Amino acid sequence: MTVDLAIFTVLDRLLHLLVVERGEPPFAGALALPGGFVRPNEDLDEAARRELLEETGLAAMTERGGPHLAQVGAFGRPDRDPRMRVISVASFALVPPELVPQIRAGGDAAHARWVLVRDLRELSESPLAFDHPEIIDAALTRLRSDLDQTSIAFALVPDPFTIQELRTVHEAIGGAPIDPGNFRKRVLRMIDDGMLELARGKRQTASKPANLYRFVAPR
Amino acid sequence: MTVDLAIFTVLDRLLHLLVVERGEPPFAGALALPGGFVRPNEDLDEAARRELLEETGLAAMTERGGPHLAQVGAFGRPDRDPRMRVISVASFALVPPELVPQIRAGGDAAHARWVLVRDLRELSESPLAFDHPEIIDAALTRLRSDLDQTSIAFALVPDPFTIQELRTVHEAIGGAPIDPGNFRKRVLRMIDDGMLELARGKRQTASKPANLYRFVAPR
DNA sequence: TCAAAAGTGTTTCTCGTACACCCATGT
DNA sequence: ACATGGGTGTACGAGAAACACTTTTGA
Asked: Please, are residues A18 and A7 in contact by the beta-carbon 8 Å criterion?
């Protein structure tokens, strides 16, 4: 039993995934999702959170209650690992861009790097180990569907965020540009639904300073 | 590693779940989801489908390509089974009402029976074994969310079905009555989206005979 | 003064909801 | 004839989409 993690962030307006380069066979030199074995007395969520910490060193995230983590599914094809029977429970994690620079500081993270999700799909599956292409597809599908139905988008923006930052996340995941005026109205509606609130201060931009908003956790 | 199954159907306009009564400790006498161990060379979906067959004897379902089966998630609390560490991958399955009468014919199914989902929730968790209340909750949540986004509703109606039969499924899962006129319009829209087609014949009802429709698999 | 992005407004269309009503059939 | 449920029509409102426009800043 292992857990594998699809750790996403939005950098430079594009969706990125954290991958590690494998040092040993099988698939030496190939890219793979970070992951590891579940310990004997560990819950699956616990194991995923521990791996996330080990791979990213992001202890600091606990101040926001930790990064968003959600299970994607179990993958158990008998031949998915040539060495032995391994069943993996995959989760996806969302890292806000403010914390991305801290990741290199982590322990196992020396060999970890961000790759563009768009590039992964163009290169097809060539450089990816095991059944990880399949896992990534499932994680992406889940990510996109959760985007419209849950509040996961807020896990990918800085804590007080501008409307543009939030829109950028939606565009990166959805893959298509969104009309800024219309998106603004969606955000305003979230405000009088009590889901968001205006925060103090302004964010400097290339032009007119932007209002800041904050996600209000449901009571 | 085990698979557990939440097998649903709609009987008498209400959502039902197939449960077995446990014969041995732990939880002897309690109700539990059907399930079993994953075999060494079996994929998880394969194991789930095999268990479904063993528990229901519904070989006949293959004529419609088998019942709908989808993974819900993995459950791995270290103490979920007092005997040993067991991680279970839960799936839900949907059985159309036409096949329900055949289920008693199955092998392991002698001790299986349908219970009202509504009753399960009223009785809280008292009579359910292991963490099965949690699994059932997750399966229900998934069922409800898939209902609006996928075509799973068609797996719970007879093959040519009436609009009322389809509406009944939505009402049973959603738990609330739906305006018949409005629901009809939704169905008509599905028809000119090419998702449904009018089938020949009529279904006898307590009043005016109803048109029959058929689900058209996406090409 | 000009570019860039924030923010506002307008119009059109689709869809969900509520609800009134007609139609065909078995009893 | 009448209850039952199939099937149709209307009216309102929320929200998605397309797009023009004004405002405020930095360069």
From this structure: yes
**How many angstroms is C1' of C5 away from CA of B27?**
64
B205 CA: nearest nucleotide by C1' = D5
Residue B212 phi, psi (nearest 5):
-110, 145
Structural domains of chain B, ranges and CATH numbers in brackets: 2-149 (3.90.79.10), 157-215 (1.10.10.10)
Q: Quick one: closest CA in A to B38, which residue?
A: A76
B43: closest chain A residue by CA: A77
Q: What is the pLDDT along chain B (219 residues), one digit of tens a residue?
A: 999 999 999 999 999 999 998 888 899 889 999 999 999 999 999 999 999 988 887 765 555 667 899 999 999 999 999 999 999 999 999 999 998 888 865 555 567 889 999 988 776 655 899 999 999 999 999 999 999 999 999 999 999 999 999 999 999 999 999 999 999 999 999 999 999 999 999 999 999 999 999 999 887
Task: Nearest by CB to B44, from A38, A40, A74: name it.
Answer: A74
How far is residue A139's CA from residue A90's CA, in Å, rounded to a whole number? 8
- Whole-number Å distance, CA A188 to C1' D19? 19
pTM of the model: 0.93
Give the count of alpha carbons within 13 A of A170, CB side only: 21
Work out the minimum CA distance from B42 to partner chain A, whole angstroms.
6
